[in-house]
Write a structure and sequence with these properties.
It is flat and about 35 Å long. With 97 residues, it is an alpha+beta fold. It has helices at residues 15-23, 56-68, 76-85, 93-96, and strands at 6-12, 33-43. It has one domain (3-96).
């Protein structure tokens, strides 16, 4: 696999996402810190409908956007607005939704 399948950065327990969903808000991720990955990297997670897997950072940002706009985030129009704003570059509204 090429390097484009990997990313560098802090690694947090996936439990952080699960616990945040249960609480209905993003919890402090530092409580779930595991280690810093500065070497070859960690495999990207398989998230979304697109052909290129999302990074953990992208997945978390989408989660934040969806939570902050809970009443609108179920609709395609909302995600089209997010795509046009380029908050998550090179990601389609369909794959973020």
């Amino acid at each position: 696999m090429g390097k484009h399948f990997f990313f560098r950065g802090d690694v947090h327990s996936a439990r952080w996402i699960v616990d945040s969903i249960k609480e209905g808000k993003l919890l402090d991720k530092e409580d779930y810190f595991r280690y810093e990955c500065a070497g070859e990297g960690i495999k990207r997670i398989e998230f979304g409908k697109g052909k290129v897997p999302y990074t953990m950072t992208e997945a978390i940002k989408i989660f934040e956007i969806g939570l902050a706009n809970a009443s609108r985030s179920r609709g395609a129009t909302f995600w089209q607005e997010v795509e046009r704003s380029s908050i998550i570059p090179k990601r389609t509204s369909d794959s973020m939704r």
